[in-house]
Amino acid sequence: MNDFLSNWSKAALTSAGFFWMAFWAFALGYIISSCIQVFVTRQRMKKSMGEAGPKSVALATFFGFISSSCSFAALATTKSLFKKGAGLVPSLAFLLASTNLVIELGIMIAVFLSWQFVVGEYLGGCLLILCTWLIVKLTLPAKLEEAAREHVGGGEEEKEDIPDWKERMTSRKGWKLVARQYFMEWGMVWRDVTFGFTVAGIISAFVPAEFFTTLFAGAGSESDPSFAQVLLQTIVGPLAAFFTFIGSMGNIPLASLLYANGVSFAGIMAFIFSDLVVFPVLRISAQYFGWKMAFYILAVFLVSLIVSALVLHYGFSFLDLLPQGNSSAEQVKPSERFAIDYTLFLNLAFLSITGLLYWLKLMGDQTDQEHEHSQHHHKKKKWSDQLLTGIACISGVWVVIGLLLNLKA
C-alpha cells in the first residue's frame, strides 16, 4: 500500500511538473493563434479558397498553419470549407495543417523533446499533406465525394461580412475578441491537457520500462532497430492512440516518455501525428461526411502518417540527425521541475498577460455576434465531450490528492 501511495504522489508531482514546464508554451501559442484568428478571420480564409489544385492546396496549408485548432474545431472548419465548394484535398490539407503545422505544438515539442522533433513535426506535416493529396488523387471514387457533398449539404451560398483587419488591430473591440478567443482556445483543450498530462504522470510512475520494449518492438535496444521493428512501431503508435481521447497537445508529454524509453524517432512521430486517427474524430467525421467517407479519410490519414514517419526516420538517419539520449522531461526529478529558472519567470509573465486578457474578456460586449456564435457552438455538447469532461475532472482530482500526499510525506 505504501508503494502505491508513493507512486501516486510521484505521478501527481510529475503531471503537475509537466504542466508547469508547458504553461508558458501553451499561453504563448494561444496568444499568437488568437491574434491570427481574430485579425485574419475564417471568413477571409473561406473566400480565398477555391476548387482542388496546387494553389488551393497551398492556400489551405497556409491558412491551416495560421489557424491552429484542436482536432474537433479544425474538423468543423474543414466541413465548412468542403460545404462551400472547396475540393476534398484542400479541405483535408487545411485539417492536417491546422492540427500539425501549428506554432504552439512546435513550442511544446521543443520544451519536452528536442529540435529534431520540431523539425520533424513541420516537415512531417508537409509530407502528410503531400501523401494525402497523392493517395486521394489515385483512389478517391467520384461517387464517394458526391455522396459526401450531399451528406454535408454542399453548395449553399452565404453572404458573410469580412472585417477589416487593420481596423480590428487598432480597436479595443479587436483585442477584446483576442481575449475571448484566447480563453476559447483553453476551453477546447483543457480536458485533453488534463487527461493527457495525468496519464503521462501515471505512466512515468507506475509503468516499467519493460512494457514499452514489449509494446514497441525493438524499443530500448542498444542496437539500431531493424526496418520491420521501425515499421511495427509506426503502426503501434496510431493503433494505441485510436481509442484515446487525447489530442495532439496532450500527447506530447506521453511522446517524451516514449522517447525516454527508447522508442524510435519514426514511432514517436507517428504517435504525435495520430491526433486525427482517434475514435472521437472518426465519429464526428462520420456525422459530417457519412461513414463511408469517414473511414476513407481515416485510412488515407493512417497510410499517410506511417509513410511520413518512415520517410522522416530514414531521411534523418541518412543525414545523421536522429536524436540521441533521453527527453528533457526525463532528465530531471519531478520536484526539480519547479526550480527557480527561466520557466518560473516565463510562467509569471504569461500569467500576468492571461490576467490582462481575462480583464479584457470581462469588458467585452456580450452581445457581439461572434460571441453568440461561439456560445451556440459550445451548447452542442456531444456524449464524447461529456465523457472527456468527466475523465478530465477525475484526472484533476487524482492529481490534487497526489499532491496532498506529497505535502504529508
Description:
With 409 residues, the protein is mainly alpha-helical. 77% of the residues lie in helices and 0% in strands. The protein has helices spanning 2-40, 42-48, 54-66, 71-83, 88-100, 103-112, 115-139, 142-152, 165-169, 172-206, 209-215, 227-242, 248-260, 265-272, 279-289, 291-318, 342-363, 369-379, 383-408. It starts with a helix and ends with a helix. The model is unreliable at 369-379 (pLDDT under 50).
Secondary structure layout:
Blueprint (H helix, E strand, L loop, with lengths): L1 H39 L1 H7 L5 H13 L4 H13 L4 H13 L2 H10 L2 H25 L2 H11 L12 H5 L2 H35 L2 H7 L11 H16 L5 H13 L4 H8 L6 H11 L1 H28 L23 H22 L5 H11 L3 H26 L1
Helix pairs in contact: 1-6, 1-10, 1-17, 1-19, 3-5, 4-5, 4-15, 5-7, 6-7, 6-13, 7-16, 10-13, 10-17, 10-19, 12-14, 12-16, 13-14, 14-16, 15-16
Low-confidence stretches: 369-379
Category from helices, strands and their pairing: mainly alpha
* CA gyration radius, whole angstroms: 21 Å
The overall pLDDT, averaged over residues, is 80
Helix and strand sequence: HHHHHHHHHHHHHHHHHHH
Helical residues, percent: over 70%
Biggest β-sheet, characterized? none
- Regarding quaternary structure, how should these chains be classified? single chain
Strand content: under 5%
Measured between the Cα atoms of the first and last residue, the distance is 14 Å
Counted by DSSP, the helix tally is 19
Given the C-alpha coordinates, what overall shape results? globular
Number of strands: 0
